[in-house]
C-alpha cells in the first residue's frame, strides 16, 4: 500500500512527461495522483497498529544490505499524510503557466519522492529520495519561478546537495558499523551502532546535524531559503516550506536521535541552543522584511527552531520522561502544523502574486475591502502561525515549551520571546496587507475564487481541528515510542 | 454543560457574523445569545468538566461560587451593551462587531470556568485576539490597526508570564490543574505566582502596561464599554482573585500586588483627572479602579475585589455608553465641548447615577464596594490605607469632572438619544441602582456568603477619612470641570513615549540590522564555501597544468616507470625537446601532416591526455606533437626492434 502511495505519483509523472495532455488534464492527472496517494495513506492509517506498520520489503542489493523497504510509524505516517494533503492542495491550486504539462510532471514526481522519503525504511533509498526531491524542486523553481529564479534555484540545489553529501557519508559510516552490513532503519534503531563515546560518533553526528540542519534550515545555514521562496511559484513555495523542510527535522529525529541516542544526548545542549538562536533570529529578521514571501520564509526558520529545540530536548536524556515526551510531541506536531499553516500562507502569497505580480508589503493595504475571503484566510493562518490557542501552532509550541522547561528552563524562557516577536510581525503583515487605505493600483483586486477558497478552507479546517481537539493527532504520532530508552545501545 | 458557557457564545457570535441583517435583527439575535449565555451561567453553578486534550494535558473546568459570580456578570453586562451597539455603532461591519463581541465573551467565560492553567491560557489568549479584532474594527483607517497591534503585543508580553507559570507548574508537579498549583512551594511557586501576576497586570492595564488601554480607545465605544467592564481588563483582576488561595503563599506576593495596584490607582487617577478626551478619562479610571481590585487581592480579600469588579462593571459600562452618545451628538470626544444636560436630560440623569457610583458616593453601590476596599487595605496597614484614601479622592474628582463636563449645563441642542442606546444605558445604570442594595446588611451578608467573600471590619476613622476624601474629590472635580484645562502634553505620564523610544524603535532598528547582517554576513557561509571550492578547483587545475608542463626531460625517465604516465610524460618531454625544432620545421610539419590523416593525429593527441592544449588551436604545437609522436614511434621501432 505504501509502495503504491509512492508509485502512483511517479507513474503519473511519467505519463505527464510522455503523453501530450492539455493544461487542465495535466493538472487533474497530477492532483488525482496525489489524492490517490493520500487515499492509500489514509487506508494505512485506518488499519491502525503500533510501531512500524504496513511494512513491505523487496531485496535490491542483498550483498550491501540495501532493499526496497517501506513501513511507517506514527510520526512518518502523520508526515506523509500531511505531505500528500499539501501536494493535493498545491497541485490543484489554479495557476497560469507556460509548459504546464512539464510543471505538473515535476509536481507529481516531487509528490512521489517526498512521500517516499517519509515512508521508506532503507537509508539508501531515503538518501536517494532526499536528493531526488532537490532535483524536482530545482526545476520547479528554476523553470517556473520569477525574478532571479535560476540563481535562487542553483543556490538552493548546491547548498542542500552539500548537506546531503555529509548525510551520505554519515549513513555509510553508520551502516559499516552495524554487526552485519545493512541499511535497514529498523535494525539500526533497535541496536544503535556507534554507541561508544569518541571522535567518530561525534563527527558522524556533526555531519548529520549540518546536513539536516541545512535542509531544515537552522541558523546559520538558512540563507538559501529566502531567495528560493521569493522566486518560486506560490504552490512550489508551499511544498518547499510545507514538505521539504520537514525532511530535515524528520531526518534529525529518525537518524541521529533514534540511531545514535547516546551521542545525541551528549550533544543535545548545543543543538538546543542552535534551536533557540533560530527561533529568535528567524523572527527578528522576519520582522524587518518588506517582502511578503521573505517575511513568511524567515518565520519558517523561527518555527523550525521550535522543532529543533523540541527534538534536542527529547533526545537530551535529561529531565523527566514526561518532559521529553512533551517536547517530542510538540516537535512532531510543529512539523505537521507548520506544514499546514505555512503551506496555506504561501498559497495565499501565490494568490497575491497571481493578481498583482508584487510582494512588496508597503505597496499593499486595504485588501480587506475587495477580498474578504482572502483576508479571513490570511488572518486565520497568521494567527495560527503566531501560536494562538485553538489553532494548531499553539498545540505544538505549548508542548515544546513545557518539555523544554523541564530540561533547559533558561532556553525555554529565552525562546518564549519568539512567540512575542512572531505576534508583532504577523500583525504588522496583516495590517500592511489588508487594513488602511486601498492603493489605487489595487483597485481591481479580486477575491479568492471558488477553487482557491475550497483548497485553503480544507487546509485551515485541519489547523482548527488540531488546535481544538489535538488528541487524535497526538495518539497517531505516539511520541513516547519515538524516544529511545537512554543507554539502550550502550 | 459547563463548556457550553464558553462555546455557545462563540458559535452564536460566528453565526451572527455570518447571517448579518438589520439593526433590529442584530439587536435581537445578539441580546438573545447574551441572554442564553446568562441562562447557561445560572444553571452551571458547581459543575465541573474535563476534556482530554492531549495525552499529558487534560483541560478542566469548574465553577466555584466566586467564579460563578463572574460567569453571571459577563453576559449580564454584554446584554445591554449589545442593545446599545446595535443602535449606536456604524452600520457597516455591524454583524462582525456584534459577532466578535460574543466570541470575546465566550473567551472570557473560558477564562472564568478554567480550572487548570492550559484552559486558562487558551481563554486568555483568545480574549487577547478578540480584543485585537475589536480594537481594529474600523480597519479602513490607519490608527485602529496600529493600536490593535500595540494592544495585542503589549498584553501578549504579559501572557509570557502565564506561559512561565504554566511551565513551572507542569515541570514541578506534572499537572497543570489549579489543585497542582496549590501544592507548589519554593521557586516553582514564586515563578508561578509572579508569572501570573505579570499576566494579570498586563491584561488589567496596570503600570507599566497601562498605555494599551489608551490605544484601545481607537476601537468602537461599545467595545470599550465591554472591554473595560466585564472582559479583558476584568480578566486580569478576576484571575488573581480566583487563584489567590494558591498564590498568596509566594513570598512577597501580597505586597507586590498592593504596590502595583495602588501605584496604578493613584497614577491612573492623576492621568484621568488631567484628560480632556472623554474616553481616555474613563480609560485612565479603569486602570485606577482595577488597581484598587488588585490591591485588595494583595491585602487578602479576593471576594471584596470581585464585588468591586461587579459594581464597577455596571457603572463603567454605563459611562462608556454615555460617552458614546455624547460623541454622536457633539461629534467630538473633547470634554470641553460637550455640556449636554439640557439637550439630553434623561441620558444625563442616568449618567450622573453611574458617575456618582464611580465617585463612591453613598448610598450608591460604588460607595459601598469602595468602603469595603478601604477596610480591606486598613487591615494591611495604615500606609496602604492612606494610599487608597488618596486614590478614592482622585476617583471622586475625575468621575465628577466627567459628569459635569460632559453632561453639565450647556446649550440646548436639537438632539435625541436612540432607543437602543437608551435601553443599554438605562439597564446598566439601573443595575448600578439595584446593586446599591448592597448597603443593606442582610443583602450584603447574603451575597458575601453566597460568593464566599470575607467582609473586612473597618475603623470609624478610616470611614470618615475616606468620605472626607471623596467630598474633597468632588469639589476638586467640580472645579476642574469648570476650568478650561489644557490636554496633557504627555499621554499616560510619558509611558507610551517610553515604549516608542525605548522599545519599539530600537527593536525596529535591531531587526533591520539583523536582516542586513543576515544578507551580508550569514550568507557569507555558503558564499565563502563556494569561493573556497572555486579556489580549490582553480588551484587543482593549475597544479594539473604545472605538473604536466613541468615534466622536465630529467623527470621523464622516472615517470616512464608507470604505465599511465609514460605516454603523458613522453609527450611532455617530446614537446619540450622539439619545441625549437618545431619552430624551424613548421613547414616540414605541414608536409608531414598531409601524410598522416588528421583523425589519427587527433586520436594520438587524445591518448596523450592533453586535450586542452590540443584544442587551443596553436598549429605549431599541434604539429610539433605530431612530429614528436612520429619521431618517437620511429625511435621505438629502431631501438625497440
Q: What do these coordinates show?
A:
The complex is a heterodimer of chains A (490) and B (641). With 490 residues, chain A is mainly alpha-helical. Chain A has one domain (2-482). Chain A has helices at 2-18, 23-47, 74-92, 100-119, 123-144, 149-176, 185-190, 199-215, 225-231, 234-259, 261-266, 268-287, 292-314, 321-356, 372-385, 392-407, 409-434, 450-468, 471-477, and strands at residues 53-61, 66-72. The longest helix of chain A has 36 residues, at 321-356. By secondary structure, chain B is mainly α. Among the domains of chain B are: 257-302 and 322-488, no CATH class; 545-640, no CATH class. Chain B contains 29 helices and two strands. Chain B has a two-stranded antiparallel sheet with strand order 1-2. In chain B, strand 1 and strand 2 form a beta hairpin. The longest helix of chain B has 32 residues, at 142-173. Chain B is elongated. Chain B starts with a helix and ends with a helix. Classes of the chains: A mainly alpha (490), B mainly alpha (641). The interface between A and B is large, with 58 and 52 residues. Chain B: The chain crosses the membrane at residues 59-85, 97-115, 121-139, 160-181, 193-214, 221-241, 253-274, 281-301, 307-327, 339-361, 381-401, 422-441, 461-481, 622-640. Chain B: One of its GO terms (cellular component) is membrane. Chain B: InterPro entries: ND/Mrp_TM, NU5C-like. Chain B: Keywords: Membrane, Oxidoreductase, Transmembrane, Transmembrane helix.
Topology of this structure?
The complex is a heterodimer of chains A (490) and B (641).
Chain A: H1 2-18, H2 23-47, E1 53-61, E2 66-72, H3 74-92, H4 100-119, H5 123-144, H6 149-176, H7 185-190, H8 199-215, H9 225-231, H10 234-259, H11 261-266, H12 268-287, H13 292-314, H14 321-356, H15 372-385, H16 392-407, H17 409-434, H18 450-468, H19 471-477
Antiparallel strand pairs in A: 1-2
Helix pairs in contact in A: 1-2, 1-4, 2-3, 2-4, 3-4, 3-10, 3-14, 3-18, 3-19, 4-5, 4-10, 5-6, 5-10, 6-8, 6-9, 8-10, 9-13, 10-13, 10-14, 12-13, 12-17, 13-14, 13-16, 13-17, 14-15, 14-16, 14-18, 15-17, 15-18, 16-17, 16-18
Chain B: H1 4-19, H2 23-42, E1 48-52, E2 58-62, H3 65-88, H4 94-113, H5 117-135, H6 142-173, H7 178-182, H8 186-203, H9 211-215, H10 221-229, H11 233-242, H12 244-247, H13 253-274, H14 278-298, H15 302-330, H16 345-358, H17 365-380, H18 382-407, H19 419-435, H20 441-451, H21 460-482, H22 495-522, H23 524-549, H24 553-559, H25 563-584, H26 586-595, H27 598-607, H28 611-614, H29 619-640
Antiparallel strand pairs in B: 1-2
GO molecular function (chain B): NADH dehydrogenase (ubiquinone) activity; NADH dehydrogenase activity
Subcellular location (chain B): Endomembrane system; Membrane
Transmembrane segments (chain B): 59-85, 97-115, 121-139, 160-181, 193-214, 221-241, 253-274, 281-301, 307-327, 339-361, 381-401, 422-441, 461-481, 622-640
Amino acid at each position: 500500500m505504501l509502495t503504491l502511495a509512492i508509485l502512483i505519483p511517479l507513474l503519473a509523472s511519467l505519463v505527464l512527461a510522455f503523453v501530450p495532455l492539455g493544461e487542465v488534464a495535466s493538472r487533474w492527472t497530477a492532483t488525482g495522483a496525489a489524492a490517490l496517494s493520500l487515499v492509500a495513506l489514509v487506508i494505512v492509517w485506518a488499519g491502525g497498529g503500533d510501531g512500524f506498520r504496513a511494512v513491505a520489503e523487496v531485496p535490491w542489493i542483498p550483498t550491501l544490505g540495501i532493499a526496497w523497504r517501506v513501513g511507517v510509524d506514527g510520526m512518518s505516517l502523520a508526515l506523509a499524510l500531511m505531505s500528500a494533503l499539501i501536494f493535493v492542495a498545491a497541485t490543484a491550486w489554479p495557476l497560469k503557466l507556460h509548459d504546464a504539462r512539464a510543471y505538473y510532471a515535476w509536481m507529481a514526481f516531487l509528490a512521489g519522492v517526498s512521500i517516499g522519503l517519509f515512508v521508506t525504511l532503507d537509508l539508501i533509498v531515503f538518501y536517494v529520495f532526499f536528493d531526488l526531491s532537490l532535483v524536482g524542486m530545482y526545476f520547479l523553481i528554476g523553470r517556473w519561478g520569477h525574478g532571479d529564479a535560476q540563481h535562487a534555484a542553483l543556490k538552493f540545489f548546491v547548498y542542500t546537495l552539500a548537506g546531503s553529501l555529509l548525510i551520505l557519508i554519515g549513513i555509510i559510516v553508520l551502516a559499516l558499523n552495524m554487526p552485519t552490513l545493512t541499511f535497514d532503519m529498523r535494525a539500526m534503531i533497535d541496536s544503535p551502532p556507534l554507541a561508544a563515546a569518541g571522535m567518530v560518533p561525534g563527527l558522524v553526528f556533526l555531519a548529520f546535524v549540518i546536513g539536516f540542519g541545512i535542509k531544515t534550515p537552522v541558523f546559520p545555514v538558512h540563507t538559501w531559503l529566502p531567495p528560493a521562496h521569493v522566486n518560486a511559484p506560490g504552490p512550489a513555495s508551499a511544498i518547499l516550506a510545507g514538505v521539504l523542510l520537514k525532511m530535515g527535522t524528520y531526518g534529525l529525529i529518525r537518524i541521529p536521535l533514534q540511531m545514535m541516542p547516546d551521542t545525541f544526548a551528549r550533544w543535545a545542549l548545543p543543538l538546543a541552543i542552535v534551536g533557540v538562536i533560530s527561533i529568535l533570529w528567524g523572527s527578528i529578521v522576519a520582522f524587518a522584511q518588506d517582502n511578503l514571501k521573505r517575511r513568511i520564509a524567515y518565520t519558517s526558520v523561527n518555527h523550525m527552531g521550535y522543532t529543533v529545540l523540541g527534538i534536542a530536548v527529547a533526545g537530551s536524556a535529561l529531565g523527566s520522561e514526561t518532559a521529553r515526551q512533551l517536547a517530542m510531541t510538540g516537535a512532531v506536531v510543529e512539523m505537521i502544523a507548520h506544514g499546514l499553516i505555512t503551506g496555506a500562507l504561501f498559497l495565499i502569497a501565490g494568490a497575491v502574486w497571481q493578481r498583482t505580480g508584487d510582494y512588496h508589503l508597503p505597496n499593499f493595504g486595504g485588501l480587506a475591502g475587495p477580498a474578504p475571503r482572502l483576508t479571513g484566510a490570511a488572518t486565520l493562518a497568521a494567527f495560527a502561525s503566531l501560536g494562538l490557542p485553538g489553532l494548531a501552532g499553539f498545540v505544538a509550541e505549548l508542548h515544546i515549551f513545557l518539555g523544554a522547561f523541564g530540561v533547559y528552563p533558561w532556553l525555554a524562557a529565552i525562546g518564549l520571546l519568539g512567540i512575542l516577536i512572531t505576534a508583532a510581525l504577523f500583525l504588522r503583515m496583516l495590517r500592511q496587507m489588508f487594513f488602511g487605505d486601498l492603493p489605487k493600483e489595487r483597485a481591481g483586486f479580486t477575491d479568492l475564487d471558488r477553487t482557491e477558497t475550497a483548497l485553503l478552507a480544507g487546509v485551515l479546517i485541519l489547523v482548527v481541528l488540531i488546535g481544538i481537539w489535538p488528541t487524535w493527532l497526538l495518539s497517531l504520532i505516539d511520541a513516547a515510542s519515538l524516544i529511545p530508552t537512554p543507554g539502550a545501545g550502550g | 454543560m459547563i463548556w457550553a458557557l464558553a462555546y455557545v457564545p462563540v458559535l452564536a457570535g460566528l453565526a451572527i457574523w455570518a447571517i448579518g441583517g438589520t439593526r433590529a435583527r442584530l439587536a435581537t439575535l445578539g441580546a438573545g445569545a447574551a441572554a442564553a449565555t446568562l441562562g447557561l451561567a445560572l444553571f452551571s453553578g458547581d459543575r465541573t468538566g474535563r476534556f482530554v486534550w492531549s495525552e499529558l494535558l487534560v483541560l478542566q473546568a469548574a465553577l466555584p461560587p466566586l467564579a460563578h459570580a463572574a460567569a453571571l456578570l459577563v453576559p449580564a453586562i454584554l446584554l445591554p451593551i449589545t442593545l446599545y451597539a446595535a443602535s449606536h455603532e456604524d452600520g457597516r461591519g455591524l454583524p462582525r462587531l456584534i459577532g466578535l463581541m460574543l466570541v470575546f465573551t465566550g473567551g472570557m467565560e473560558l477564562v472564568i470556568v478554567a480550572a487548570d492553567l492550559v484552559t486558562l491560557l487558551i481563554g486568555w489568549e483568545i480574549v487577547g485576539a478578540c480584543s485585537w479584532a475589536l480594537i481594529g474594527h474600523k480597519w479602513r483607517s490607519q490608527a485602529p490597526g496600529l493600536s490593535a497591534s500595540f494592544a495585542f503585543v503589549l498584553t501578549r508580553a504579559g501572557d509570557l508570564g502565564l506561559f512561565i507559570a504554566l511551565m513551572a507548574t507542569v515541570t514541578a508537579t506534572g499537572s497543570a490543574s489549579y489543585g497542582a498549583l496549590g501544592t507548589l512551594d519554593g521557586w516553582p511557586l514564586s515563578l508561578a505566582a509572579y508569572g501570573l501576576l505579570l499576566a494579570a497586570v498586563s491584561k488589567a492595564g496596570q503600570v507599566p502596561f497601562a498605555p494599551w488601554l489608551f490605544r484601545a480607545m481607537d476601537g468602537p465605544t461599545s467595545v470599550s464599554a465591554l472591554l473595560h467592564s466585564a472582559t479583558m481588563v476584568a480578566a486580569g483582576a478576576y484571575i488573581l482573585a480566583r487563584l489567590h488561595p494558591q498564590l498568596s503563599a509566594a513570598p512577597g506576593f501580597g505586597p507586590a500586588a498592593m504596590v502595583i495596584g495602588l501605584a496604578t490607582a493613584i497614577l491612573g487617577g492623576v492621568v484621568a483627572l488631567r484628560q480632556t478626551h472623554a474616553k481616555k478619562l474613563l480609560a485612565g479610571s479603569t486602570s485606577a479602579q482595577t488597581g484598587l481590585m488588585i490591591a485588595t487581592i494583595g491585602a487578602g480579600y479576593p471576594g471584596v475585589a470581585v464585588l468591586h469588579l461587579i459594581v464597577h462593571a455596571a457603572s463603567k459600562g454605563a459611562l462608556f455608553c454615555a460617552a458614546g452618545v455624547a460623541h454622536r451628538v457633539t461629534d467630538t470626544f473633547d470634554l470641553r465641548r460637550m455640556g449636554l444636560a439640557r439637550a439630553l436630560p434623561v441620558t444625563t440623569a442616568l449618567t450622573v447615577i453611574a458617575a456618582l457610583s464611580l465617585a463612591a458616593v453613598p448610598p450608591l453601590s460604588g460607595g459601598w464596594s469602595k468602603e469595603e476596599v478601604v477596610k480591606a487595605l486598613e487591615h494591611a496597614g495604615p500606609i496602604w490605607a492612606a494610599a487608597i484614601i488618596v486614590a478614592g479622592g482622585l476617583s471622586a474628582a475625575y468621575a465628577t469632572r466627567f459628569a459635569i463636563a460632559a453632561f453639565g449645563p450647556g446649550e440646548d441642542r436639537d438632539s435625541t438619544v436612540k432607543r437602543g442606546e437608551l435601553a443599554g444605558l438605562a439597564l446598566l445604570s439601573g443595575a448600578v441602582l439595584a446593586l446599591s442594595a448592597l448597603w443593606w446588611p442582610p443583602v450584603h451578608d447574603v451575597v458575601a456568603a453566597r460568593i464566599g467573600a470575607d467582609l473586612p471590619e473597618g475603623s470609624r476613622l478610616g470611614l470618615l477619612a475616606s468620605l472626607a476624601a471623596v467630598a474633597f474629590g468632588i469639589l476638586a472635580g467640580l472645579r476642574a470641570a469648570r476650568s478650561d484645562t489644557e490636554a496633557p502634553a504627555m499621554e499616560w505620564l510619558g509611558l507610551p513615549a517610553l515604549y516608542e523610544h525605548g522599545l519599539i524603535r530600537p527593536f525596529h532598528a535591531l531587526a533591520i540590522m539583523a536582516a542586513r547582517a543576515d544578507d551580508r554576513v550569514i550568507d557569507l557561509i555558503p558564499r565563502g564555501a563556494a569561493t573556497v571550492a572555486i579556489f580549490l578547483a582553480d588551484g587543482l587545475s593549475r597544479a594539473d597544468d604545472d605538473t604536466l608542463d613541468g615534466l622536465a626531460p630529467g623527470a621523464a625517465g622516472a615517470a616512464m616507470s608507470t604505465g599511465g604516465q609514460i605516454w603523458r610524460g613522453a609527450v611532455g618531454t617530446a614537446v619540450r625537446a622539439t619545441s625549437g625544432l618545431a619552430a624551424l620545421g613548421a613547414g616540414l610539419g605541414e608536409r608531414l601532416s598531409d601524410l598522416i590523416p588528421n583523425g589519427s593525429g587527433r586520436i594520438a593527441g587524445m591518448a596523450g591526455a592533453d586535450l586542452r592544449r590540443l584544442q587551443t588551436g596553436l598549429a605549431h604545437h599541434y604539429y610539433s606533437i605530431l612530429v614528436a609522436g612520429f619521431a618517437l614511434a620511429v625511435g621505438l621501432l629502431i631501438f625497440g626492434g
